Amino acid sequence: MTREPQATVIAGVTVDTRHWIGGERVASAETFADISPIDGSVLGEIARGTAMETAAAVAAAKAAFPGWAATSRAERARILHAIADGVEKRLEDLAIVETCDNGALLRSHRRGVMPRVAHNFRFFADWLLTLEHEDFETRGHANHVSWDPAGPCVLITPWNAPLMLATWKVAPALAAGDTVVLKPAEWSPLTASLLADIAAEAGLPAGVLNVVQGYGSEIGDALTSHPEVRRISFTGSVPTAKRISASAAANLTPLSLELGGKSPLLVFADADLDLAVNLAVEQYDNAGQVCLAGTRLLVEETVAEEFTRRFVEKARALKQGDPRDEATDIGPNIHPRQLEKIDGFVQRALAGGARTVIGGHRNDDLGGQYYAPTLLTDVTQNSEIVQEEVFGPVLTLQTFTTEEEAVRLANGTRFGLAAIVATGDPERAERVSGQLVAGTVWINCFFVRDLQAPFGGSRQSGVGREGGTWSFDFYCDVKNTVTAPNGWKNHG
Ligand code: NAD
Predict the structure, then answer these.
(1) Helix segments in 317-354, DSSP class H
(2) 58, 101, 291: which to mutate for ligand 1, most atoms within 8 A of CB?
(3) What is the pLDDT of residue 429?
(4) Is the CB–ligand 1 distance for residue 214 below 6 Å?
(5) Which residue from 2, 307, 369, 467 has the least number of CB within 10 angstroms?
(6) How much is the mean pLDDT over the chain?
(7) Can you name the CATH fold of 7-259+461-480?
(8) Which CATH number fits domain 264-443: 3.50.50.60, 3.40.309.10, 3.30.1130.10, 3.20.20.70?
(9) How far apart are CA 279 and CA 282, in angstroms?
(10) In this model, does residue 5 exceed pLDDT 80?
(11) How many CA atoms lie within 13 A of 98 on its CB side?
């Protein structure tokens, strides 16, 4: 790895560490160090944005908007497919850079995440071309609904799945005819820069996609309070979302907020227990840094002992270590501060009477920020560990005796992002899913996500839905045009 002020080379891949504004690379007076969670090494010195660069990026997005909005749907779709081609061509580069930057498994980036990044562009390009609402009549007047481009959008994303979450917003915004200022998380800034290269090569006009690097706490307000910004889509934590909401209120800028969760995984005695155990162990994926993770295991008392026995056996077999190694199941957590936060939650829970079934400690001998996969039991519904999102490989186990109690425990937090139900009874599945407060309910499965499905959270897990037509409803100004029956006569 070599480092220069304007670029860094990671595993042979050159990544520009400056902003991308109006089709040009722009440096900042200061930089910040981007640190790899694998071994704490400095990956690069990243441009530390200020109000000046954010203003320039919004100005570039504003200037590019009329041209991009006037570009035909077919041409926009063609360019989005060309971006997807570019992602596929550079899949290996993107996968290794992302792994070094955020510590998630290289094998997942290769086989799941980066193909999905390309699919984000293909899906919204194709969906754009199908977007229509049947015309209808009101007393002889014709109604026509259109999805008009809205303007410059600010897209702010977290570090746990950087490029996947960024492109899940960038793709529909570009398809909609909007222009974009993307602000990636400061703990994983690199693949957004590669995306800018790929989009430029694919023929996306200058200024349509801009990338501003930097600390959210320093440049966030300047972006979200900007009067020329027409949409803000944010994925991240609840406290940041509240701050953004307050800042966006100055201009009543429409917001889409995809936030944290504390999702339940309900295991009924009639479930296929091996399937339920597999679903539970899957919640350690990405070292527990998944917003949708079902971190609260709610297990029917009659099967709890057997469930726990099988769970422990499976979880102990997980291999933790370097995420570049194909055999690794759990990599590091993102940052020393995140590791401290995780351990703080666990130690406070143990001090409050929780009991460790497995884990409960850091895995310092692995050399980076590794936390042992942890299961805690003897926890109470009102305790911090049950109520607050840990965002690490930490699960809790509670038992229930009736379906009513299971639903009450499941719904008993301020979140409502997802819920997972393991049951062998279809009627129970329907009854229970109908009562759960969640944007997505998975029955006997997890993480099956179709991009045409509505995605978002209830309660403090989010505001609004994206996905399929819901994305276009958000990123567009939806308009209804009403034409009189004799509209073409000169009434004068
Ligand atoms: P975070 O809120 O700390 O940061 C997210 C982004 O917001 C970063 O880019 C950061 O720089 C920026 N930011 C920080 N302060 C800002 C401000 N004042 N104004 C504007 N932007 C600001 O979240 P995080 O720690 O990066 O991510 C983890 C959180 O994201 C978890 O709560 C997780 O559940 C959530 N998440 C939700 C989803 C979802 O789809 N619902 C997906 C992934 C992650």
Answers:
(1) 336-351
(2) 291
(3) 98
(4) no
(5) 2
(6) 96
(7) Aldehyde Dehydrogenase; Chain A, domain 1 (3.40.605)
(8) 3.40.309.10
(9) 5
(10) no
(11) 33
